[in-house]
Amino acid sequence: MGDIADGLIDGSFDAVTGEYIGEACGYPRSIYGDPYIGMRGKHSSINGVKNFLRKFQLESKNYHQHCVDFIMENHIEREGQSNSWKVVADIIQDNWKRFVAYTNNCYNRKP
Question: What Rg do the C-alpha atoms of the chain give, in angstroms?
Fold first, then answer.
């Protein structure tokens, strides 16, 4: 590999801008925070759940409550019992098949 590529991989160069930022730390880094946040989407699990619920023509203000109801009815443990969108959406992603079946059942749709 070239020197620049090695520098990006070992953290000598900023993974976003390519600028030299100091001695190598052993992993890609950026002065702007997590260099991979833009690639995987900051809230991709939240957006995925919302996109799915749009198909049922729910009002967007009801999305979160529907998700919390699913978690409560299925007795799924949450960290600190948080109802934040991030925690709720991550739980939905981990239990996706059950959530789809629950949502289809709530709105009388066939899977």
Answer: 20
Average confidence score pLDDT of the chain: 79
pLDDT at 39: 46
- What is the structure's pLDDT at 40? 47
Sequence-separated (6 or more) residues with CB below 8 Å from residue 66: 53, 58, 103, 106
Q: DSSP code of 20?
A: B
- Residue 10 has, within 13 A of its CA and on its CB side, a CA count of 12
| CA distance linking residue 61 with residue 67, whole number of Å | 12
Tokens 């702007």 belong to residue? 32
Length of the chain: 111
Is a pLDDT exceeding 80 seen at residue 19?
yes
Structure tokens at 97: 């098949």
pTM over 0.70: no
